[in-house]
Amino acid sequence: MIKMRELEKFEISVLNLCKDDKLREKLRNKMLKSKQPTDPFQLKKIENKIEKANKKIS
Predict the structure, then answer these.
(1) What domain of life is recorded for the organism (predicted)?
(2) CB atoms within 10 A of CB 17
(3) Contact call for residues 28 and 4 (beta carbons, < 8 A)
(4) What is the pLDDT along the chain (58 residues), one digit of tens a residue?
(5) What is the DSSP string of the chain?
(6) How far is the C-alpha of 22 from the C-alpha of 38, rounded, in Å?
(7) Cβ atoms within 10 Å, residue 20
(8) Contact 13, 48 (CB under 8 A)
(9) pTM score
């Protein structure tokens, strides 16, 4: 079994932008599986993905 790590504050704040619960949970699990904190480039990609999903919901 993969040991999950705690999310950093900046990772949590990016996830909180997401309005879609399913997408938020999917991204959260993906972040938890990585052994190290998400780098700024990956965070920006995730943020763009969240913004796209939020536009579809609106």
Answers:
(1) Archaea
(2) 13
(3) no
(4) 556 778 899 999 999 999 999 999 999 999 998 888 999 999 999 999 999 999 998 8
(5) -PPP-PPPHHHHHHHTT---HHHHHHHHHHHHHSSSPPPHHHHHHHHHHHHHHHHHH-
(6) 20
(7) 14
(8) no
(9) 0.84
